[in-house]
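Hi R.,

Here's the chain you asked about this morning:
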Amino acid sequence: MSIVSQDFTFEPENEAIVGNCYRTIIPSQQSSYQLGDRILIELPHSHNTMLNTQASWCNITLNANLTGTNVASNTTDIHLSSIGIFSCINEINLISNSSGYIQQLRNHQQIIAFLLSNNSSMSSTFASSINSGIPLVNGSNSRLNDPIAITAAGGIPEQKFSIPLLGLLSDSMKQLPIGMINDNLTIELVLCSDVRNIFFSGKGSATTQITGGTISLNAEFDADMITLSDNSYRKVIDASKNVNGIVSWNSSQFHATNNTVSIANLDAGTKSIIQFEVGGVKPSQLTQLFHCGFPSALGAGDMWEFGNYQSEDFRVRLGSFVYPQQYVKGSAEFKNSVNDALSQTANTLLNQQTDFNHNKMNYRQLASTETHTSTLSGGVAYNWEKFYDTGQGIDHKGKQLSIECSIQTSGITAVNPIQACTIKRFSVLYSISPNGDFSVSY
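And the predicted structure, written out as tokens:
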């Protein structure tokens, strides 16, 4: 017979995390929305629950009716925007019902257009993917969808989409601990105010032109939830707490602002350097900056088919310093600057626009009577994370930021001004206090 010693120490091994994974559909507050409305979807505070952001998305059902010249019964010229149903969302915001706005992502269409054209893979357009229906950029840099069949009354058959929501809800932090937050979170989607932000005609006013219309839209959040047992949840919380019991994590947000490049600038005939002041948030860790141009006139083509209007020079001025000291010059350096800022190592023939600039540099937005709205897409960027002395970005607080770039005639007369879009990417710190208050700082 064996006798267990009084000094025997028993330490049980930790069990695997015990939990239940399930999907749930969270409806919006209303059953139907129109142009210009705010869609509100409330994520409930759920006991011991994590939201898997990388496997959750927004389902959108769209019904539309278009009006305009020769729109009714048109089967060849009407197209959904190059960025798909992302085109209907002006803003993606996230509100903590107790703490206020956690995320305000404005000019969403321009941000997503830049990312889809410069940082998306071929697989993101396949039929089984979350971005299904968004066309891949082809050799001429035109994201032209297959035409949409229009009914005799100008109606568009019901269309369904599933898309990720940029920002915290598709974040690098895979699990959002909604069970730790003391109140519900609300998703706020601000819809565009004009149907021409969503649909466009492949031909000008001489044949087919959209002048207006209405949409009816329904949205719901398709969430992947993980609910843990009390003991498992306690272990997760204990392992996640930092100073004073606060759970925090680093991530990034985007902020886009617009300036106008006038027709006079576009058609000056000789190269000139112009400067834009860039407003908006001034974070303490500005990590990357992207710059590109978009059309400004509704009804003259796809609003989110952007073109790189600069000719061959670009740099950033922050306070009294310029980055880089010498201008980024020419199409190769422009493309490489974007690759560097997006942590991409090379251009590819499938998903990177290696011919985004050629000797003409870019097309202007064409006249309404032209038969095609193709533009050469591209952009330029600067990355503050690549230098040892800036670490995780550069301090923007208290410093004015401006863009210096050259404008040069392209041989194509400008019909409308161009919106010069500057996108800031910056580090943020999310935190949840012991009493469940959710906050963000930057």
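Confidence is low (pLDDT under 50) at residues 348-363, 371-375.

Let me know if you need anything else.
M.
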